[in-house]
Design goal:
By secondary structure, this protein is of the alpha+beta class. The protein is 35% helix and 20% strand. It has a five-stranded antiparallel beta sheet, with helices on one face. The longest helix is centred in the N-terminal third of the chain and has 43 residues.
């Protein structure tokens, strides 16, 4: 085999390999993207009771983008629905914790009651503020079922601040920030209920 022939064969093999790789990527990319989206959905939606929605909330984003509130910023959100009727909203909130920004996901039912909350990102101190990321977090679960009226504006604070909630031991700043973020989100929901719930049947 001449050198030219050998180079030609190598070139053909290289082109064939590149084409094969491209074909495999094109075939598998949609499936990989679907699986990654399903993982993301499970991660984000686990604070919503499964029976409370039958749509894909992540496909129904809310028109929120860095909305400044009293103690937090709303980064975005999603609408959940069941049988064509809005059943809950998920709000992404950012507050300032002890170690830096804390991004929270806060689920609020259509009746204004808190369904759950969880941190998405944080840089809090391990063993102290970082315990908000424990699963399940007994402290965060203590807010489920609360609303703007229960315990009322004055009650949404730490007991040391004359509110009604305990703090995580050794994590006053983190606890205060999370409570303020949840309270801000409940107030925003109450003030913009119709806009947030909308009418998903016509989306």
């Amino acid at each position: 085999m001449s050198r030219a022939t050998g180079l030609g064969v190598l070139l053909l093999l290289a082109v064939g390999g590149a084409c094969g790789t491209f074909f495999v990527q094109q075939v598998t990319a949609p499936r990989i993207e679907r699986e990654q989206r399903a993982i993301q959905a499970r991660e984000l939606l686990q604070i919503l009771p499964a029976e409370s929605y039958d749509n894909q909330p992540l496909d129904h984003p809310l028109p929120l983008d860095n909305v400044p509130l009293n103690h937090s910023t709303l980064l975005g959100g999603y609408r959940a629905s069941r049988n064509g009727q809005a059943s809950a909203v998920l709000l992404r909130s950012q507050v300032s914790g002890y170690g830096g920004p804390i991004e929270l996901l806060i689920a609020i039912a259509a009746d204004g009651k808190l369904l759950g909350s969880k941190p998405l990102r944080h840089a809090e101190t391990p063993g102290l503020g970082a315990r908000i990321a424990e699963r399940p977090s007994a402290w965060l679960q203590g807010f489920i079922g609360k609303s703007l009226e229960d315990p009322g504006d004055a009650g949404w604070g730490l007991k040391k601040d004359h509110g009604q909630f305990d703090q995580m031991a050794g994590a006053t700043i983190t606890s205060r920030a999370v409570i303020e973020g949840i309270h801000d989100s409940l107030r925003y929901f109450d003030a913009h209920r119709e806009q947030l719930l909308g009418n998903p049947a016509h989306e």
